[in-house]
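Q: For a teaching session next week I want to show students how multiple molecules come together into a single three-dimensional assembly. I've collected the sequence lines for a complex. Could you give me the predicted C-alpha cells for the whole thing so I can convert them for display?
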Amino acid sequence: MRISVIGAGYLGLVTSVSLAQIGHNVVGLEPDRDRAEQLKNGLLPLYEPGLKGLMKTNMNEERLSFTHDRTQALNDTDVIYIAVETPLLSNGRVDLTAVEQASIDIATTISQPVIVVIKSTVPLGTLTNIEKLMKKHTKIPFQMVINPDFSRQGNAVHDTFYGDRIVLGAVNDQAANVVEEINIPFQIPIFKTDISSAEIIKYASNAFLATKISFINDIARLCENAGANIDDVAFAIGLDDRIGRKFLGAGLGYGASFFPHEVAGIEQAAENVDYRSSLLESVLRVNNNQHSVFMKKAKEVMDGEFLGKKVALLGLSRKPKTDDVRGAISIRIANYLLDLGANVTAFDPKAIPNAMKVLPEEIEFASTIEEALIDADVAFIMTDWDQFKDLPLSKYEELMNRARIIDGRNCYPLDYVRNYKIEYHSFGRPPVWIEEESELKQ
Ligand SMILES: NC(=O)c1ccc[n+]([C@@H]2O[C@H](COP(=O)([O-])OP(=O)(O)OC[C@H]3O[C@@H](n4cnc5c(N)ncnc54)[C@H](O)[C@@H]3O)[C@@H](O)[C@H]2O)c1
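A: Of course. Below is the structure for the complete assembly, covering every listed component.
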C-alpha cells in the first residue's frame, strides 16, 4: 500500500512515522523546500518525545521519505492522509483554509483513484463540503474516510501505538475496510461508523475531558472560598469509578491544549445543525476565566506591585513535553506582566525558540530554571513540566530575592511546601505563608 501524508507538522509527522513503523511505504509532503530538506536529512523540526529515533529508523529502512514536490507525493499513491493545521480564528471558529487547499491540491494532482483520509480535526459537516470541493476540481473517482486523532501532544507516539481505539467514519464500506486494513498492525480496537458519528466522537470525547477540567476548576474555586483543599476533594471524588481520577487536576485550565479548538468546534457544529450546547458554553466560560483568576490571585499576593519586580515565568509551552506555544496561557500572562511593568525572565525546557517568535523582546530568557529564579521576587509556574516538579524546593529559598511561588498547575503537595520557607499560592488549596511574615501559616 502506497501512502502519502500531507502536512509535516506535529500530527503529520507522527502519522507518517508510525504508519512507516508498522510496515507501510510512506511519503510525507512538506511544501517548504528548506523544511523538506531538513526532514530528508533526518532532522526533526519540532519536539515530540520518541519521534526522532523512529523517524530515522524508518528513513534508513527506506519505508519513509519526504518531498516538497506535490506531484511526486500525490500522483502515484493509493491513500492520502490530510494532516494539516486547523487553527482557531479570533472569532472562535475553526479555520479550514489549509484542509480545503490540501483537498484542492489532491484533486488537481492525482492521476488515479485514491482514498482520502482526513486526520486533521474538522468540525461536523466538513467532509461533505470537502468532497464537493474536490469534485469541482477532478473527474477522477475518490473515496473519503475520516480518521480522527486522539493522541495527546507530548505523548503522541505512545498514544498512536497504545491508544484505546481507532475510529473510522466513511460512506463507503470498501474505503473504510482499506483504511482498517492499514491500521490492523497497531493492534488497537478499530471502530467503523458513519462520517457524522466519527466527527462527533472526536469532538465529544475532548469536550467531555474539557468538561471534567472546568468542573474541577469550578469546585476548586468553591474550595478556596470554603477553606477546603481541592487535592483531598478531587482524590476522594475520583475514587468513585463512575467519575475516575483522571482530568481532575485544578489549575490554569486547558487553554494550553487543543481543547478550546475542539470545544469551539463542537459549538460550531452545533450551530450548523441548529443545536446550542449551554453546557459547553459554560465549560468554555469557566476555562477562559482561569487566567483572570490566576492574575487576580497574583495581584493580591503582590499587593498590585509589579513595577520593576522580577517575575520568573516557569513554563512557556502549552503543556509539558512539547515545544508548541500556540494558544499557551503563558504567552498571554507574559504580555500582561509586561503591561504591569514587571521584568519577566522566562524558562522552558523546550519551547524557548518558539516563544521567542511570539513574545516581545523585553522578555528575558534564561537557559536554566536556576538562572530564571536568581533574585526573582515571585515565580509563576505556568506548565507542569517534570523539571519543575522535580526541582528541590530549597532552590526557591536559595536563589530568589523572596521565595514566593504562584503555582498555576498545583505542582507541589502542600505538606512538602510546608517544610520550606516559601510563600506558596495554588488553585483550590489554602495558601502557605512564611512563618515570620504572617501568622497565617497553615
Ligand atoms: N498536534 C497534535 O498533537 C494533534 C493531536 C490531535 C489532533 N491534531 C490536529 O491535527 C491537525 C494538525 O495539527 P498540527 O499541530 O500537526 O499542525 P501543524 O501546524 O504543526 O502542522 C500542519 C502542517 O501542515 C502543513 N501544510 C498546510 N497546508 C499544506 C498543504 N496544502 N500541503 C502540504 N502541507 C501543508 C504546514 O506547513 C504544517 O507543516 C489539526 O487539525 C489539529 O487539531 C493535532
